[in-house]
Amino acid sequence: MRYLILALIFMITLFSCKKSDESIDETVVFEISPVDTQYISIATPLGNLNPPDHTLPTNHVYFYFKDVTPVPVKAVAEGTIRQAYYNEWSDDYRIEIYHTTNFLYYYDHIHDIFPNVTEGANIVMGEILGFGHGGMDLGTVDYKTENNFIFPERYHEFYLYCKEPYQYFNDSIRTMLLAKNPRIIEPRGGKIDFDRDGYLSGNWFAEGTPLIWEASSYLYADNQIAFVYDMFDPLKVVISCGGTLAASPFAYKVMEGPDPAFITPSSGLVKYRLNAIFFDCTLLVLMVDNRRIWVEVFTDALPGDITYFSGGERVYVR
Question: Residue 151: which of 222, 56, 237 has the closest Cα?
Fold first, then answer.
């Protein structure tokens, strides 16, 4: 009987320790900025649009520096490097760091990384990893929660589990970083998931795009179109297209037209006058059903000039 009681106590203690470890795993606080805030001129929210590379709202924030002088980039938290690899197209490096089993943060466009910044290496908070030249990216990934995309199969893990990074900094660092962020509307850190099933809002893909995570990457940029919102002023609608339509790639603010969050198949033909600087531009869209749209762009035309599709429309699906 005594041994049974001891065994029971041991199991309870083991379970309690496991629960305690899990609760510790939930806590993520960045006590320092990745670079000294005096060097930062602009700290952006999530959701940048820059097609064709970033046709869909971008899943990391940017820190732009006041000049191009190399700025030391530090680890904001201890962790283990998942990978550090060379970006051939931009001649710099990307570093991904596990802070806990469920949480990862990463930097991109880092130069002159130190020799010890390699896969599997353990790092400590404040350790210098490399240098930023003119700017850098910061992304945070929380595997415990998932963003709202209608078909998650189309998205890389860094889209699915992307979280806005500013929320993880302590109060004083977050205040200093957000002071560099021009966005004044909550959430100050931005947003990337605008999909609403049965509504126009969010991301769409050219019909025939395979149901794979690469569909949301630059590999299928020509196939992507998004009806979303400006990252600095989310009251303004932006339509972003990577290719296939006239005038693409483009990310134009809407000058005239309804909020896509309220457009449904019952809305019929919808016209958007786009803020193309050098020519008039109108986008015509029809929601055929909840997950299929027809889209055509008319250059050198105002909404009043358009009555229906000309035959050059493209079909997009979720």
Answer: 56
pTM, full prediction: 0.89
CATH number at residue 106: 2.70.70.10
Give the separation between CA 136 and CA 155, rounded to whole angstroms.
23
**Burial of residue 205 (number of CB atoms within 10 Å: 0-12, 13-18, 19+):** buried
Per-residue confidence band for 250, with pLDDT thresholds at 50, 70 and 90: very high
For 238, residues 6+ apart whose C-beta sits below 8 A from its C-beta are 49, 226, 228, 229, 230, 251, 252, 253, 254
Residue with token string 């105002």: 302
Bridge partner list, 273:
256, 282
Q: Residue 250 phi/psi, 5° resolution?
A: -150, 160
Residue-wise pLDDT for 187-217, tens only, equals 999 999 999 999 999 999 999 999 999 999 9
Is 54 within the bounds of a domain? yes
Cα angle value 219/225/230 (rounded, 5°): 110
Query: Range of 83's domain?
Result: 37-178
Q: What is the token pair recorded at 131?
A: 């240098």
Per-residue pLDDT at 242 exceeds 90: yes
Q: CA torsion, points 244, 248, 252, 254, in degrees to nearest 10? A: -40
Q: What is the pLDDT of residue 26?
A: 59
Q: What is the 3-state secondary structure (H, E, C) of 132-158?
A: ECCEEEEEEEECCCCCCCCCHHHCCHH
